[in-house]
């Protein structure tokens, strides 16, 4: 794959800048009512209500009025000096995005690397995303997180680049924040059922109601049940999700929220990797998209349970104080089957059994509000986070049961009880105090400066091999400048950092210092139509230093393990363009275009298995006049090609997936004011493509054309 010419990035940036600078048309005048017009007062929200709130549910909006995801200060997207995308509740409903991995696949600048039906990892700017948050509380990423159900969340906030101010340790990729739903002031009942390809069925119930006569205590309950099959032979899905929360106004200025979330995913016939890429003579193997090596007994059970409590007090002077407590537990139980070898000579079975449990307790105390200095009003946020995570994994490692594996699901389960099980236990503690100031230097010029002081500690025991590491006083700076060119446009520049401890040692036995990610970014942002449309263009430069490299010929004293040295120079450069909102009355659109080039310290390509360029478009339009019961929409997701090096019987071979596009359609019809009929079609042209290629010399096809029909009810 040839490297892009330098001038292409420049010319395309200019084109996007021109696009961003063209004023959007004024919103069309409201159509006059007719006898067939459907009156939906519960979803009629004016522009001001969107601009003043971060909540997206029942706004019909494809953007949000404000977000605190980058700095904990509630700012509009135009005022935030980082590249931010918010996927709203309406956008998720329109596209039937029922899991986190589906949301990520449609978010600007993010890509997914799928290894099998149980593992999907997320990337941005060439680096893996390991920073996940729930209501702003950082948590560890586990493979099961990718498939969490989104019915419980109001929106998904993504901040691209280094996010160390709020997340502490991690990669300079992005942070994904899942924001939970909360009770509505009035009674609300939503329910839906759907069915689609491969006998997939889904039902949801979402009930919100006052629990006291004066409405000061409110509750909400969400339940999801999903079952079905797949285009893959023998795969069966079963997912349950439950969520309950109570909000209580203890006083006019103090609110207590207590909630519990339980998501249980128990599929069977799961794959572990894909199908072999090669025949025994070195030629490429060919098979149907439905082919699978999974046994009927293969499973990958994941359950995530979270209990949380938030106490917030609002002072008369505009300051808010919030205390958040969070306890989460994630369990995985796996029985997996894959293969080594090539087609034609017999596939040698490879099996694994493992049980994992992760428990995390988190505390977050934060205060934010305005203050006056030198005759101007500014804003500040200060906070402290403390988390403690225990990890326990018990597994067999690779088990070689013997025999020959065939793609019929009948291979018997090995005697995992007779295998040699080993345990890994880890305790990870992370603490951090952070602060940020938003200084109003002049009316158009705002400067955000801040930082975080972190403490990170890990103690790990892997089958008797001990590893301990601690770092204290680690400072992570944050700086941003925003200049309002006028009421519509602002220009910004920012510098952010993040660090990530590592467990490699050098030839003297010393543990390598944490990697340090640095993100420099400049851009232009715009807010049109009273905040109903937001657009941004960002150009970024990401550097990652202290990356472990193999120190050939040298080993760690005492243990004899391979030694490593720290190298600088891993970098990623590119741009993101993002446009979301209601371009005209009843016309919503989300569009994102992202491109980067990335290399390691030795100049080789970083993350060759990821596409470097992605374009994502989705739009809906509610027809006017006599047809205003009908909403239609569609979109396309395009990505450039990617490759990996694999090993055939003839040696190392580069295997590629070329550029491809997936097209989707949707339609929704209002049968009554309360009942809607929906239809979604994905992969319209039935494109055959690999979602994974090269991993362990295997490949996995992506979803063929599929459809969903749904009926929803709202009271």
Automatic annotation (TrEMBL):
Segments forming domain TonB-dependent receptor-like beta-barrel: 257-684
InterPro entries attached to this UniProt entry: Beta-barrel_TonB (IPR000531), Beta-barrel_TonB_sf (IPR036942), Plug_dom (IPR012910), Plug_dom_sf (IPR037066), TonB-dep_rcpt-like (IPR039426), TonB_sidphr_rcpt (IPR010105)
Single GO molecular function: signaling receptor activity
Protein's GO biological process: siderophore transport
Signal peptide segment: 1-28
GO CC terms, sorted: cell outer membrane
Keywords (A to Z) from UniProt: Cell outer membrane, Ion transport, Iron, Iron transport, Membrane, Receptor, Signal, TonB box, Transmembrane, Transmembrane beta strand, Transport
Listed Gene3D superfamilies: TonB-dependent receptor, beta-barrel domain, TonB-dependent receptor, plug domain
Coiled-coil residue spans: none
Pfam families given in the database record: Plug, TonB_dep_Rec_b-barrel
Membrane topology: Multi-pass membrane protein
Keyword presence, Nucleotidyltransferase: no
Localization per Swiss-Prot or TrEMBL: Cell outer membrane
TonB-dependent receptor plug domain ranges (all copies): 77-173
Family in the record: Belongs to the TonB-dependent receptor family.
NCBIfam families: TonB-siderophor (TIGR01783)
Name listed for the protein in its UniProt record: TonB-dependent siderophore receptor
Organism, as annotated: Pseudomonas eucalypticola
């Amino acid at each position: 794959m040839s490297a892009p010419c330098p001038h292409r990035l420049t010319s395309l940036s200019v084109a996007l800048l021109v696009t961003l600078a063209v004023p959007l048309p004024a919103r069309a005048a409201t159509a006059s009512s007719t006898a067939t017009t459907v009156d939906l007062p519960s979803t009629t929200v004016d522009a001001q209500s969107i601009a003043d709130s971060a909540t997206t549910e029942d706004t019909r909006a494809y953007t949000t009025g404000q977000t605190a995801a980058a700095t904990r200060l509630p700012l509009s997207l135009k005022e935030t000096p980082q590249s931010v995308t918010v996927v709203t509740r309406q956008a998720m409903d329109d596209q039937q995005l029922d899991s986190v991995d589906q949301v990520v696949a449609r978010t600007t600048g993010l890509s997914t690397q799928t290894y099998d039906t149980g593992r999907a990892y997320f990337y941005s700017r060439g680096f893996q995303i390991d920073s996940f948050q729930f209501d702003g509380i950082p948590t560890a990423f586990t493979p099961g997180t990718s498939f969490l159900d989104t019915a419980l969340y109001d929106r998904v906030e993504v901040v691209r680049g280094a996010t160390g101010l709020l997340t502490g340790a991690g990669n300079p990729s992005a942070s994904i924040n899942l924001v939970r739903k909360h009770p509505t002031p009035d009674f609300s009942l939503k329910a839906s059922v759907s069915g689609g390809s491969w006998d997939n069925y889904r039902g949801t119930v979402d009930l919100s109601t006052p629990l006291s006569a004066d409405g000061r205590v409110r509750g909400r309950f969400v339940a999801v049940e999903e079952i079905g099959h797949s285009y893959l032979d023998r795969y069966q899905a079963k997912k349950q999700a439950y969520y309950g929360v109570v909000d209580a106004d203890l006083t006019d200025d103090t609110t207590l929220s207590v909630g519990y979330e339980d998501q249980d995913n128990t599929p069977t016939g799961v794959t572990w990797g894909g199908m072999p890429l090669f025949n025994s003579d070195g030629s490429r193997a060919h098979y149907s998209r439905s082919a699978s090596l999974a046994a009927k007994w293969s499973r990958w059970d994941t359950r995530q349970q979270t209990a949380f409590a938030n106490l917030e007090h609002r002072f008369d002077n505009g300051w808010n104080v919030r205390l958040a407590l969070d306890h989460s537990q994630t369990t995985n139980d796996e029985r997996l089957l894959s293969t080594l070898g090539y087609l034609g000579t017999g596939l040698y079975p490879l099996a694994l059994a493992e049980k994992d449990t992760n428990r995390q307790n988190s505390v977050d105390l934060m205060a934010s509000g305005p203050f006056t200095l030198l005759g101007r009003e500014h804003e500040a946020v200060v906070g402290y986070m403390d988390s403690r995570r225990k990890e326990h994994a018990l597994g067999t490692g690779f088990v070689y049961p013997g025999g020959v594996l065939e793609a019929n699901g009948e291979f018997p389960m090995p005697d995992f009880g007779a295998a040699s099980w080993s345990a890994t236990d880890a305790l990870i503690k992370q603490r951090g105090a952070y602060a940020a100031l938003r200084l109003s230097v002049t009316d158009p010029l705002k400067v955000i400066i801040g930082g975080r002081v972190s403490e990170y500690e890990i103690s790990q025991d892997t089958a008797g091999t001990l590893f301990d590491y601690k770092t204290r006083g680690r400072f992570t700076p944050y700086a941003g400048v925003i200049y309002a060119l006028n009421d519509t446009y602002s220009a910004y520049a920012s510098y952010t950092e993040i660090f990530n401890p590592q467990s490699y040692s050098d030839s003297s036995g010393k543990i390598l210092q944490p990697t340090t990610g640095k993100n420099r970014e400049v851009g232009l942002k715009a807010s049109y139509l009273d905040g109903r449309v937001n657009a941004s263009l960002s150009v970024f430069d990401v550097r990652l230093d202290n990356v472990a490299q193999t120190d050939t010929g040298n080993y760690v004293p005492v243990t004899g393990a391979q030694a490593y040295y720290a190298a600088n120079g891993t970098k990623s450069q590119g741009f993101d363009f993002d446009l979301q909102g209601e371009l005209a009355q009843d016309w919503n659109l989300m569009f994102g275009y992202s491109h980067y080039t990335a290399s390691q310290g030795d100049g080789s390509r970083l993350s060759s298995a990821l596409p470097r360029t992605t374009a994502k478009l989705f739009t809906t339009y509610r027809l006017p006049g006599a047809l205003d019961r009908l909403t239609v929409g569609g979109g396309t997701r395009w990505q450039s090609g990617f490759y990996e090096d694999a090993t055939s019987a003839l040696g190392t071979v580069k295997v590629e997936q070329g550029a491809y596009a997936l097209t989707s359609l949707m339609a929704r019809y209002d049968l009554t004011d309360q009942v809607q009929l929906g239809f979604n079609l994905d992969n319209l042209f039935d494109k055959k493509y690999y979602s994974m290629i090269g991993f362990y010399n295997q490949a996995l096809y992506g979803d063929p054309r599929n459809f969903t029909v749904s009926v929803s009810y709202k009271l």
